[in-house]
Design brief:
Elements (H helix, E strand, L loop, with lengths): L1 H6 L13 H4 L29 H12 L14 H12 L30 H15 L5 H15 L27 H6 L33 H13 L5 H11 L4 E2 L38 E2 L10 H8 L2 E5 L5 E5 L9 E3 L6 E3 L4 H4 L5 H12 L1 H17 L35 H13 L5 H12 L30 H15 L5 H15 L35 H11 L3 H11 L23 H8 L2 E4 L3 E4 L5 E2 L1 H8 L1 H12 L1 H16 L14
Antiparallel strand pairs: 1-2, 3-4, 5-6, 7-8, 8-9
Helix pairs in contact: 3-5, 3-6, 4-6, 5-6, 9-12, 9-13, 10-12, 12-13, 14-16, 14-17, 15-17, 16-17, 19-22, 19-23, 20-22, 21-22, 22-23
The structure holds protoporphyrin IX containing FE (HEM).
Length: 690
C-alpha cells in the first residue's frame, strides 16, 4: 500500500471548469472541502496571466541564438541546434499510451526528467534561456519558452515552421513525470524487464532516453535491428514513417554530437546539484564538451537548413567505428577518390568530418524508410512540408484540441488535434429547460432507465485525459468506433435509440453530445441527486478517431487492479472524493452492466448513500468467478467496487459518504459538473455569447 499514497500524489492537472452562463446562473450552495487527490496546486499561475508578446520573445531568442557565453560557448556561434534539441527532448517524452510526457508543464526542469542521460547538458540550455523567462515572468511559461526557442531557432536557421501553439502551463514539480521513470511509480505502472527493450506503455526502449539508443539496440551498431526500434518508439508518439524520417533528418540537419574524449559528462543533477555534468574532457566546454559521447556534425553546414543529411545517407558508404568518446558511430568509408566531407569545427577553428549514428543509418536499412529518405533527398519541398507539420505535431500534441492553443501564431486546426465543428452561437441552441422536460417525460414513461442514461453520460465523459486533454463527451464520439465497440458500452446503442425521439424533436440545434450529457444529468436529478448545472453548446464529431488511444483500462472485470484504478483517476484529473462520489451515484442505479447479474443496492431507482454502506459493510465473496455477491443478500458488485473499499484514500471518502448523505450529494454535484465540463475549452473567452 506504500505505493498508493505516492501514486495519489501524481499531481496532474485538474480539468479546467470553463465559465459558462448556464453554470454561472445557478447558485452553488454545496459544501466545499479540501480534496484528497493532489491534482491542485501543481501548476504555477501562468495560465491566469495575459500571454507575453510572442514576437518580442522571439526577438530576444534570436539575439540569444547568435551570442556565446564562455560558461557554455555556442557551437558555430549559434545556439540554434542546442535549443532545437532542448525543445525536442522536452516534447518528445510524450506518449500516446496515457498522454503523459510532453513539454506542457515544463517538467524537464525537475527530476526525474532533468537527470535523464538523454537530457545531459540541457541544464545549460535552460540557464541560457533563464533571463528571458525572468523578463517575461508569469506571462511566459517555461514550457512555451522551450518550445518557442527551438521553433524560433529552426526558423532562424532557414527551416520551415508551421506556427506555434502557446498556452503551456508550468507544473510546480516533476511529479507528473514520475510514471515516465526511472522511479518506483514507473516500475509499478510500466515495468521494463530489460532496459533497452522497454515496451508500451513506456514511450522509449530505454528509460532515461527519449526514444531509442542512438548507438543501436543495447549499444550494438546494428542498423538493421535499429530500424524496427525507431519505428516502434516513434509510433508510441503517434508518428508515422514519413513524420519520423522528416523529424530525424530535420533535427539532424542541425548541430553536432558531443563526445570529445571517453571520460564522460560528469554526474547528473540528482547526484551533483551544484555542478551537474561538469564535463570531464579538458575544459569540459566547446570542443571539449561531452554530452552523448558521440562526436561530430551530420552535415557540412550545421547551422543551415537543407536536405544534405538525406543526400549524405544515400551518397556515401558508411562504416561503424569507435569515435573519440568511446561509442560506436559511423563515418564515411575511406575509399580511394572519396574524401569525407567536412563541416566547420564547433569553435570555428579548423574542420570536422561528418558522421552518422546507428539510428540514422537505420533509415537506409528499412525499405519503407529508404523510400522516404530518397524522396526527401530529391525533393526539398516535400521534406519541408512534412517536417513543418511533424514538428508542429511533435511540439503541440500534448496540448490537446486547438481550442487550447493561445497566441498569434496558431495555425489552423490539424488532424492530430481532432477538430470539432465550432461552438454554435447561443441563439441557435435549443431551450435546454424544454429539453430537460422532454427527458424527464421519457424517464417517467419508463421508455429508458435513469441508470442507462447516467452510465452513457459517464462512459462518454470519463474518456477525458487531463494528461493530454484528449477525450471527453464533447464530440459524442461514443456514437462511433472504437468507442461504441468497447465492452463497457455494450448497452449504449439501445440507450441512444431511446434518445432518438428527443434528438429528432430538436434536430440540428441539439447536438448528441449535449443531449447525452444533459440526459445523464437529468437522470441523476430524477433519481434524487441535487439539481445540477448544465452548460450547452457542445458539437458532434463525424468519426471516433479522437478516442483511438482511450480504450478504458477499468472495466469492472476481475482484471481491474488498484494501481491501474489510481492511475486512471489521476489521468481523469479527478480527486479521490470526486471519483468515489460519481461511481457511487452511477452504481446506485440499475443493474450491473452487460453480462453481469444483479444490482448494487436494494433500491436501484434512487441515488442515495446505500451503495457506500453496502460495499463497506457487507461480506462480499467472489460470485461465478467474474463478479461479487454479498453473502445472504441480493446485492452484487464488480471488482471496481471492491477496489473502492480496498484503497484507503477511496474507502475513506466512501465512509464519509456512507455517514452523510447530504455531503455525498453535494460532492456528487460538484464532481459531475466538473467531469462533464472538463473538455469545454471551446467556450473560453466567448462567455458573452451565451
Ligand atoms: C543531437 C540522437 C532524433 C534534433 C543528438 C545527439 C544524439 C541524438 C545522440 C547528440 C547529443 C550531443 O551529444 O550533444 C537522436 C536519436 C533520435 C534523434 C537517437 C531518434 C532516433 C531527433 C529529432 C530531432 C533531433 C526528432 C528534432 C526534430 C537534434 C539536434 C541535435 C541532436 C538539433 C544537435 C544538438 C546540438 O548541436 O547541440 N541527437 N536524435 N534529434 N538532435 Fe537528435
Amino acid at each position: 500500500m506504500k505505493f498508493l499514497s505516492a501514486a495519489l500524489l501524481l499531481g496532474l492537472a485538474t480539468p479546467a471548469l470553463s465559465s459558462c452562463p448556464y453554470l454561472a446562473s445557478l447558485s452553488d450552495d454545496s459544501p466545499q472541502r479540501q480534496l484528497t487527490l493532489k491534482t491542485e496546486n501543481t501548476k504555477s499561475r501562468t495560465e491566469q496571466v495575459e500571454l507575453a508578446d510572442l514576437q518580442a520573445v522571439k526577438k530576444d531568442i534570436v539575439e540569444l541564438l547568435h551570442s556565446s557565453d564562455p560558461k557554455w560557448p555556442s557551437d558555430y556561434d549559434n545556439y540554434g541546434p542546442f535549443f532545437v534539441r532542448l525543445a525536442w527532448h522536452c516534447t518528445g517524452s510524450y506518449r500516446t499510451s496515457d498522454g503523459r510526457g510532453g513539454c506542457d508543464g515544463g517538467r524537464q526542469r525537475f527530476d526525474p526528467e532533468r537527470s535523464w542521460d538523454d537530457n545531459t547538458n540541457l541544464d545549460k540550455a535552460r540557464s541560457l534561456l533563464a533571463p528571458i523567462k525572468e523578463k517575461y515572468g508569469l506571462s511566459l511559461s517555461w514550457g512555451d519558452l522551450f518550445v518557442l526557442a527551438g521553433t524560433t531557432a529552426i526558423e532562424d536557421m532557414g527551416g520551415p515552421v508551421l506556427g506555434f501553439c502557446a498556452g503551456r502551463e508550468d507544473d510546480d514539480d516533476g511529479s507528473a513525470s514520475l510514471p515516465l521513470g526511472p522511479t518506483a511509480e514507473q516500475e509499478i505502472l510500466a515495468p521494463c524487464e530489460t532496459n533497452g527493450e522497454c515496451e508500451e506503455p513506456l514511450g522509449s526502449t530505454t528509460v532515461g532516453l527519449i526514444y531509442v539508443n542512438p548507438e543501436g539496440p543495447m549499444g550494438q551498431p546494428d542498423a538493421d535491428r535499429s530500424a524496427p526500434q525507431v519505428r516502434d518508439t516513434f509510433e508510441r508518439m503517434a508518428m508515422n514513417d514519413t513524420e519520423t524520417v522528416a523529424l530525424i533528418g530535420g533535427g539532424h540537419a542541425f548541430g553536432k554530437t558531443h563526445g570529445a574524449c571517453p571520460s564522460g559528462p560528469g554526474l547528473p543533477p540528482n547526484e551533483d546539484e551544484e555542478n551537474p555534468w561538469s564535463g570531464e574532457c579538458g575544459s569540459g566546454v566547446g570542443v571539449d564538451a561531452f554530452t552523448s559521447g558521440f562526436e561530430g556534425p551530420w552535415t557540412t553546414q550545421p547551422t543551415q537548413w537543407d536536405n544534405e543529411y538525406f543526400q549524405s545517407l544515400l551518397n556515401y558508404k558508411w562504416d561503424s567505428w569507435i569515435g573519440p568518446g568511446g561509442h560506436n558511430q559511423w563515418q564515411v568509408r575511406k575509399e580511394q577518390n572519396v574524401t569525407a566531407p567536412s563541416g566547420p569545427a564547433a569553435d570555428g577553428d579548423g574542420s570536422q568530418d561528418i558522421m552518422m549514428l546507428t539510428s540514422d543509418i537505420s533509415l537506409t536499412r528499412d525499405p519503407a524508410y529508404l523510400k522516404i529518405v530518397k524522396e526527401y533527398a530529391s525533393s526539398l519541398s516535400s521534406f519541408e512540408n512534412q517536417f513543418s507539420h511533424a514538428w508542429y505535431k511533435l511540439t503541440s500534441r500534448d496540448m490537446g484540441p486547438v481550442t487550447r492553443c493561445k497566441g498569434s501564431m496558431v495555425p489552423p486546426a490539424q488532424e492530430f488535434q481532432y477538430p470539432l465543428p465550432p461552438t454554435p452561437p447561443s441563439s441557435s441552441l435549443p431551450d435546454f429547460s424544454k429539453v430537460r422536460a422532454s427527458l424527464a417525460n421519457l424517464l417517467s414513461s419508463n421508455a429508458v432507465s435513469a441508470s442507462s442514461l447516467t452510465t452513457l453520460a459517464w462512459n462518454c465523459a470519463s474518456t477525458f485525459r487531463s494528461t493530454d486533454y484528449l477525450g471527453g463527451c464533447n464530440g459524442a464520439r461514443i456514437l462511433f468506433s472504437p468507442g461504441k465497440d468497447w465492452s463497457i458500452n455494450s448497452d449504449s446503442e439501445d440507450t441512444l435509440k431511446a434518445l432518438q425521439s428527443i434528438k429528432d424533436t430538436y434536430g440540428e440545434s441539439l447536438s448528441w453530445s449535449d443531449l447525452i450529457v444533459l440526459a445523464g444529468t437529468v437522470a441523476l436529478e430524477f433519481s434524487g441527486a441535487d439539481k445540477m448545472r448544465f452548460c450547452g453548446g457542445r458539437t458532434d464529431a463525424s468519426d471516433g478517431l479522437g478516442w483511438s488511444y482511450l480504450t478504458p483500462k477499468i472495466t469492472g472485470s476481475l482484471s481491474d487492479d488498484s494501481n491501474i484504478l489510481i492511475d486512471e483517476i489521476s489521468k481523469l484529473g479527478l480527486t479521490a472524493g470526486e471519483y468515489v462520489a460519481i461511481l457511487g451515484a452511477v452504481h446506485s442505479l440499475g443493474d450491473l452492466p452487460g453480462d453481469y447479474v444483479g444490482q448494487w443496492t436494494s433500491d436501484p431507482f434512487t441515488v442515495d448513500n446505500e451503495y457506500f454502506k453496502n460495499i463497506l459493510d457487507l461480506p462480499f465473496t467472489l460470485y461465478e468467478n467474474r463478479q461479487y455477491k454479498a453473502e445472504g443478500e441480493e446485492i452484487y458488485a464488480l471488482k471496481t467496487d471492491m477496489l473502492i473499499r480496498e484503497i484507503p484514500e477511496l474507502s475513506s471518502k466512501a465512509y464519509d459518504y456512507a455517514a452523510d448523505e447530504d455531503y455525498f450529494k453535494g460532492e456528487l454535484k460538484n464532481a459531475w459538473v466538473k467531469i462533464m465540463n472538463a473538455d469545454r475549452f471551446d467556450i473560453e473567452g466567448r462567455e458573452e455569447e451565451y
